[in-house]
Amino acid sequence: MIGFSYRSGVLHAEGVPLTAIAAAVGTPVYVYSTEALEHAYRAYAQAFEGQDAGVCYALKANSNLAVIRTFARLGAGADVVSEGELRRAMAAGIPASRVVFSGVGKTRTEMRTALEAGIHQLNVESVPELEALSEVASSMGVEAPIAIRVNPDVDAKTHAKIATGKKENKFGIDWDHARAVYARAAALPGIKAVGIAVHIGSQLTDLAPFRAAYTRVADLLHQLREDGHDIRRLDLGGGLGIRYKEEAPPDLPAYADMVRSITGNLGCQVTLEPGRSLVGNAGVLLSRVIYVKQGLHRRFLIVDAAMNDLIRPSLYDAYHAVLPVTEPVSGVEIAPIDVVGPVCESGDTFALQRPLPALAADDLIAFGSAGAYGAVMASTYNTRPLVPEVLVNGDAFAVTRRRQTVEELLAMEERPDWQG
Ligand code: LLP
């Protein structure tokens, strides 16, 4: 993980020892590295240099304002899926003119907000949504620039819960309906179909499914042009995987070459919507050991982070490295242990039988590759307040979201009058 390394025996984020962050902010806490974020963004920019291609960062992966701002300063656009994310993008300095609005269930209110802001593009995923957008745009006297998200029926070969491009998935317009839906769009007032969008899934570690999907999209583009549609944009979605453990995801130059080979002569502006590959390996979740429990059959490392803070292991059986903040000395005994949180569910397990050096109460550990789909998927289950987020830059760090308090949680609720 770029941005994270042991120095003098202590795990650092850039120049800052994680022990210092734990002392100042407490645990659990998400820690992100500016250097890693910038490195990941620049890798995209460099790989696609010379192509008419733009990066719209998928905010859903990590929508902390300071993280978005880091990308905004490098020229990124944004891919958003709610009014909330649109407002975050704009608050972080990404103008709506660089924002793509995706998602299967945009409400009329969200459509209006996006059009008022001057959104670059809305990716439409159904005929009822298209009709609703036509009504909203017409009532405002504007034309909505849209891409239609098509479902290419390609197996992304990733975890079932994050595959989106098979015909049984809820996403996009069925391949066989695509031409008819573009015809419908052309007939509707307030709609201007300018592009085709596709996204087949997340954490893809092979180029082949991307290639298959993009080739289908290129075929569709030719058909649509023959049908008389002036399609000038291709939105190729996100999905490039990262290394959590031993995965070997395709490198960006190879991905960019593949994109160029398929889209280079199509006369289209290409949009990419990466999320995970920009932030995943730029963050850790820092946590403290509460107890080490020796059971009859197993040993348990009980830490102060839980499934509500990082749900990926419970939800997707995802692997996250467990890094002791104090560097293990070479030759130290390694033994398997279950790493678990304090929440009252067996699913609150980060790692089963993970080989680790002996750790004791109060020791710090960091869960690796936690920058994507970590803090954003957190909940307050078990009335555990949302944990803070810290951004490191060189020798400096800043709390970019403070720790929520129990008082704030309770203040949102009221007892009805009749309960006295
Ligand atoms: N564009 C669209 C339309 C998407 O649905 C997604 C992710 C992305 C872009 C960004 O994909 P990425 O580059 O991050 O793979 N919570 C899951 C991942 C869900 C991904 C949903 N869509 C996880 O923790 O693995």
From TrEMBL:
- Enzyme Commission code(s) on record: 4.1.1.20
Which catalysed reactions does the entry list for this protein? Answer: meso-2,6-diaminopimelate + H(+) = L-lysine + CO2
Residues annotated as domain Orn/DAP/Arg decarboxylase 2 N-terminal = 37-279
Which positions bind substrate?
Answer: R276, R312, Y316, E345, Y373
UniProt cross-references to PROSITE patterns, sorted A to Z: ODR_DC_2_2
What's the domain of life for this entry? Bacteria
Q: Which UniProt keywords apply?
A: Amino-acid biosynthesis, Decarboxylase, Lyase, Lysine biosynthesis, Pyridoxal phosphate
Query: Does the record carry Lyase as a key word?
Result: yes
UniProt binding sites for pyridoxal 5'-phosphate:
G239, E273, P274, G275, R276, Y373
UniProt cross-references to InterPro entries, sorted A to Z: Ala_racemase/Decarboxylase_C (IPR009006), DAP_deCOOHase_LysA (IPR002986), De-COase2_C (IPR022643), De-COase2_CS (IPR022657), De-COase2_N (IPR022644), Orn/DAP/Arg_de-COase (IPR000183), PLP-binding_barrel (IPR029066)
Q: What is its pathway?
A: Amino-acid biosynthesis; L-lysine biosynthesis via DAP pathway; L-lysine from DL-2,6-diaminopimelate: step 1/1
Using the record's annotation, list all stretches that form the Orn/DAP/Arg decarboxylase 2 C-terminal domain: 30-371
Query: Which Pfam families does this one have?
Result: Orn_Arg_deC_N, Orn_DAP_Arg_deC
Mark the residues carrying the PTM N6-(pyridoxal phosphate)lysine.
Answer: K60
Tell me its cofactors.
pyridoxal 5'-phosphate
| Record keyword Lyase present | yes
Molecular function GO labels: diaminopimelate decarboxylase activity
**Which HAMAP family does the record cross-reference, listed alphabetically?**
LysA (MF_02120)
Functional summary from the UniProt entry: Specifically catalyzes the decarboxylation of meso-diaminopimelate (meso-DAP) to L-lysine.
Q: Oligomeric state and partners? A: Homodimer.
Regarding protein family, the annotation reads: Belongs to the Orn/Lys/Arg decarboxylase class-II family. LysA subfamily.
PANTHER family per the UniProt record, alphabetical = DIAMINOPIMELATE DECARBOXYLASE (PTHR43727), GROUP IV DECARBOXYLASE (PTHR43727:SF2)
Q: What is this protein called?
A: Diaminopimelate decarboxylase
Name of encoding gene: lysA
